[in-house]
Write a structure and sequence with these properties.
Layout: E1 3-4, H1 11-30, E2 37-39, E3 45-47, H2 48-64, E4 69-72, E5 76-79, E6 85-93, H3 95-99, E7 106-113, E8 116-124, E9 129-133, E10 138-142, E11 145-148, E12 157-160, E13 185-187, H4 193-200, E14 205-209, H5 219-228, E15 231-233, E16 246-250, H6 253-268
Parallel strand pairs: 4-6, 12-13, 12-14
Antiparallel strand pairs: 1-11, 2-3, 4-5, 6-7, 7-8, 8-9, 9-10, 10-11, 14-16, 15-16
Helix pairs in contact: 1-2, 4-5
């Protein structure tokens, strides 16, 4: 079923979608233009596009939700410390890609009310797409219309985040692991956009290490995957955000089970 945008109205979700769209405009305007790099921890860095996109998002959120709390990648925590509504903002996920003129990046905005992410939007600035949820079902907004997200594993493509190590191994070892090699085709997009692609059927699964609770990078796409019906757990198939920390998000149960087994083999070895 295809629904006109005009017939869909969820106040918080429309705010999140609009915020990602505003940031996407900033990112597109800065693409392939001269960049200034601002050093962060280790060899990490931000650019003026990250900072400008985040400013644009926070202006939208602060105008629409002035009593809320905001947690943003570049500027940290702002807003009300007493609010049970917290927005998580990643203005440009894939900064390294962007800095070398590679158009695989994402904009992530999610709202947590109490302990539950209720609204999430992950935008692809260059495809002009927004993957979003208001808690019930996941949708893709493109060309002014919303279509339901339908995950499927037919591609056998699995994106693996190499920046976040597993508790007991390096993620790259998964490529040669029994149950993975010959079964799946690894990809490394290096942005959380690939996690949203699992919900859209463009990836069979996504695997990463790390504690992702309240992550500005992952909260949005995780919520979109869950709402779309993907199987989302920790690395051992346990509830998300429990040890051993990490994430396996798969389009269906059989794919998820095979990946859990492959990761378990690394741990046993």
């Amino acid at each position: 079923m295809v629904r006109s945008v005009e017939t869909v109205h969820h106040s918080d979700s429309e705010i999140a979608i609009h915020a990602t769209e505003v940031a996407s405009e900033v990112i597109r305007s800065a693409f392939r233009a001269p960049l200034t790099r601002y050093a962060k921890q280790g060899d990490d860095f931000a650019t003026q596009a990250d900072i400008a996109a985040e400013k644009a998002i926070l202006e939208v959120l602060a105008t629409e939700c002035p009593e809320d709390r905001f947690v943003a990648e570049e500027s940290g925590v702002t807003g009300s410390s007493r609010s049970d509504r917290t927005w998580f903002v990643d203005p440009l996920c894939g900064t390294r890609n962007f800095a070398v003129d590679t158009a695989f990046v994402a904009v992530n905005v999610a709202l947590r009310v109490g302990g539950t992410v209720t609204v999430a939007a992950t935008a692809d600035p260059f495809a002009d797409e927004v993957f979003w949820t208001a808690g019930e079902g996941g949708f893709l907004r493109a060309g002014g219309r919303d279509e339901p997200l339908r995950p499927h594993a037919g591609s056998r493509l699995v994106d693996v985040d190499l920046d976040h190590p597993f508790p007991w191994s390096t993620p790259a070892r998964l490529f040669d692991a029994e149950g993975f090699a010959g079964e799946f085709h690894p990809r490394v997009l290096s942005t959380s956009l690939a996690l949203a692609w699992v919900a859209a059927g463009r990836r069979a699964a996504y695997v990463t290490g790390g504690d992702l609770r309240d992550s500005v990078h992952f909260s949005s796409a995780i919520a979109v995957c869950q709402a779309a019906g993907c199987v989302v757990t920790g690395l051992a198939g346990q509830p998300l955000h429990t040890a051993p920390h990490g994430l396996i998000a798969a389009a269906d149960t059989p794919t998820h089970a095979r990946l859990v087994e492959a990761v378990a083999g690394l741990r046993a070895g």
